Amino acid sequence: MAAPSAFGELGLSIIGLSAEYPPHSLEYTCLNTLGDRFYPDTPAMKKVLGINRYTGIDTRSSIGTPDHPAVNKKEAPSIAELHSIFQSDGVPLAIRAARKAIDEAKIDTRFITHIVATTCTDSANPGFDHFVAKGLGITHGVEKVLLHGVGCSGGLATLRTGANLALGHKARGLPARVLCVALEVSTTMVRSELDSINELQETRIGACLFSDCGSAVVLSNGIGEPSEPVYDLLGWDHRTIPDTEDDLGFDVDPVGWKVILTPRVPKLTAASIGPAFTDLKASLPQLPPDYQKAADFDWAMHPGGATILSGAEKVMDITPEHQRASYDTYINHGNSSSATIFSVMDRLRSKEMDAVAPDGRVRDYVVGCAFGPGITVEMCMLKRNMTPRTGITGLQTPPETPAETETEPSEAGDGGEWDTENSGSPAERNSVSESQDQYTKFIAESSLSCQDIVRNVSVAAEYITDLSQVRFSFLESEMKPYDRASVHGSPTWGTSGVSNEDEAGC
Fold it and tell me: Which residues are part of the catalytic machinery?
């Protein structure tokens, strides 16, 4: 590969950022409920349901519950039914996320010049980006691009595409404010995945990992009215791992889409991170001299699975604290495919995540990374704005002091929770609020490090089975089983009958 060319000063910045999760949180027992309700107790089904307990995910965000009508019919919902649910329940998530990002950017929608959107859980013409624009009241001639076939890497792919569009406008002396939107509704395909497990007697783990989310960023090219950045976008790297198109995919089917995920994925992705990071760093000569090793940076890694995150730590010599926002998002929401990376970036800037930074030091520079079908690797370099911001509407930490409580508006509903109008019954809202309060208190008062907090994810990889009963050797955790019951009220790791192998992820 030719030496990477230097990016120079691009003048690109993310000026608004938000993620919106739906109102329901699925515990592992929810998948068991559907399995017991509709399928025989076969070896493959038992294995998948066993894996489901040990993914490291506490809850997966979903537009529905196991009692949703779409997943309780005799047959799995058709692709037409899935599209209807995507439009009715998914598009509003994207609109709310986009509106929050635009509000944080402090711009009017008439200044949006481009919309770059992506999804892998719907296909229609016009695309969902048309309805997002309509829902935002954007009626002027905004330029729209809808990315297809990029899967979990889609969020960073929209950012890269938006950056090139913004630079094109800059070359013409024109302002650009690019709205990048990612939306996924994955949980409605659970019956399709369970059907395949039952019919093929295959160990398919897609139903254990994926969740629903809408997320958005606003990218500025710096021309026109100045805006305070959330992150500066310094550069990016895009590459494809040769001969891996059969290892990771999401193919259309009469009952939705089918996950393709081979046991090679964690090894392949782990091996690709180092070369991409080296080339990206080489293209950014303006980086300070104390930012050289991977551990010098914070990492916003797409949490495709436990072994994706653990593999990155091993090959890059970084700690869970470097990926703290990735773990936090994975544990509390699961893998929402393309929409997840913007959620991770948003979560990373919160006070809760700052409190568990490695060595107590929050890094100015952040590496974003995600993997998609192909297998494609998307990586970018961000510089975080450490100046306190006001009017932020994304995932924020609750106030730390009584003074903050008195002077700052409440952000209840952000940080992965939901606004009152979308948060279910008062009992559900109280339950969500209580859980968030307990988590915040644990972070603030516990003497445990981030390593302890996310240990359940790393240890989980010792107890879960991959798709083809092949043991991966790159992850050799020496941690003792972590008793989560004292913190989360959940089962202790290490008590499963699932064989001692690792799971894949994307």
Answer: 152
